[in-house]
Every structure is written in structure tokens, then in C-alpha cells.
Amino acid sequence: MTSNAPATTASTSRARRRGPQARGLALAAAIAAASPSHAADEPIADGQWRGSAGAALSASSGNTRSSSLLLSADLARLTEADKIGLGGNIQYARSEVDGRKETTAHQIGVFGQYDRNLGPRLFAFGRLALDRDQIVDLDLRTAANAGVGWKLVQTRPLRFTVFAGLGLTEDRYGAPQTIDGEVGRSFRRTTLLLAEESEHALGETTTFKQRLELLPAIAGDEGHRARLRADLGVALNRTMSLTVGLISDTNTAPPAGRSSTDTGLFTGINVKLGPS
To answer: Strand ranges (DSSP E) for the chain?
Structure first.
């Protein structure tokens, strides 16, 4: 499982136009250390919690003023028999055009996943994700999935895993919404889960990670969803890295008047958590 919640979004599909004199501020640091930097460490099955936390801030001024902040964290506990993963992120953005202020992003998401090894490569998993998005008046999305995974490649410089399973998703809105011709506050669907994730060591200090999820509906409303997370990290030392990445979420049956796809780019700082 790879969460890799992004450090911040620099632009989203909801963003408004920017003036020609826009200036960007990025939360970034470049702290060198005498000890060598490493792009990716091999997983250690010792029962210790390890992970990372990220943060970034951007701002611009001109004809349009805007600011955005995103905080993220993910942790994992790995043993010879199983793995527990936890993560979450908070994203907030505002813009001001001609004196009119508007919130353009206000999202919170958390997840938990448990993997139980059935063999050297095969494992069973259960995953629960909770999301809230005030921009589209989504009070709570609950998505529960279970299935099996297969570790196709698990050696440096590449780790690649595939997943398949079934899931149930429920969306609860704060006001009635029209979705796929139906009006209501609550919508449910049964979905397939088809996913893959990988981690590539592109040298001693550079890592590329990505996770793609496809959630085609097989019952309930006909909304199909897809989620892509990808980031490129450059290690500054053993604990800190600069990150640039991409987020894309697609929902083929969004509430009436809403875009079906949200896409964002981000830059920021990630810090490793836990023992080395």
C-alpha cells in the first residue's frame, strides 16, 4: 500500500485565473548533511511505526490573490505476518478576485489499511477511507474495500504491487444533490477495486512513487471513479526530501453543475518519521 499524500497543491481544476504579476511563495528548504542521502529505504519488518509527514504553502498576488495549504502524513507498521497503514491529508485554498473572496478547496481525508500475508507474494487486505469536501457540499464519503494483492516485484530499484477486490461506497451530502438523474442526500454504490502501485529508485537520491485506483460501479448509482497519485522525491538528507507530484480524481457522475475531474500539481517538503 502506498498512500503518499501530497504535500500541497499548486494548482487545481477549481482554481481561478491569475494576474500577470502573480508571485508564488513555496514552502521549501534545502538542508545538506554530511551523511549520505538515500532515495528509498528497504522495508523493515520489525513491528516499528515508520512513515512521513509533508507540508507546503503557496501564495500569489496581482489581479488575483490566492493561497493554499496542504498537510499530509502516512504511517505503516510492518511485520513478517502483516502490515498496518494509516494516513490522512488536509487541503485548504482561497482566492480573491476584484475584492471577492472565495474558498476554492477545503478537503479532509483519512484512511486505514490492513494487509495479511497469505504467502511470500500473495496477501489479503481490507481498507477503509473517509473523505469530506465542503466545496461540493460532501459531508462524508465512506469507502470500504476488501480483496487480495500480489507483489509482482519487491526488489530495488523497483517494487510493484497489484490489487483486486470489491467495495461499498456511500456519499452523504449536506443538501440535496442531483446525481445520475436522481435527487437525494445519500448515494450508495457497490464497486470493483482494481489498483496498482509502484516505487522506483531512480538513483541514490531520487524516488518516483505512484498509485492508480479504478472503482467501476457494478450496483447502485452509475458513478465510476478513478484516482491517481504520483510524486517525485529528491532526498536532501536521511530524513528530509523535496517533493513534486500530481493528483487526479475523476467521478463520472458528479453532482449537477460540478466538474467530473479535479487535477492538481504540488511541491513541498516531506520528513521521515520513525526509526532509521
So the answer is: 49-60, 64-78, 82-97, 100-117, 122-133, 138-155, 158-179, 182-201, 206-215, 217-220, 225-235, 240-251, 261-273
- Round the CA-based radius of gyration of the chain to a whole number and report it: 20
Are the C-beta atoms of residues 192 and 215 closer than 8 Å to each other? yes
pLDDT band per the 50, 70, 90 thresholds, residue 41: low
- H/E element holding 114? strand 100-117
The one-letter amino acid code at 10 reads A
pTM of the complete model:
0.80
Bridge partners, 261 (sequence order):
250
Tens digit of pLDDT for each residue in 74-109? 999 999 999 999 999 898 888 888 778 888 888 999
Please, are residues 267 and 26 in contact by the beta-carbon 8 Å criterion?
yes
Q: Which single residue is written with the C-alpha cell 498512500? A: 3
Q: How many residues does the chain have?
A: 276
Per-residue cell: 263: 487535477
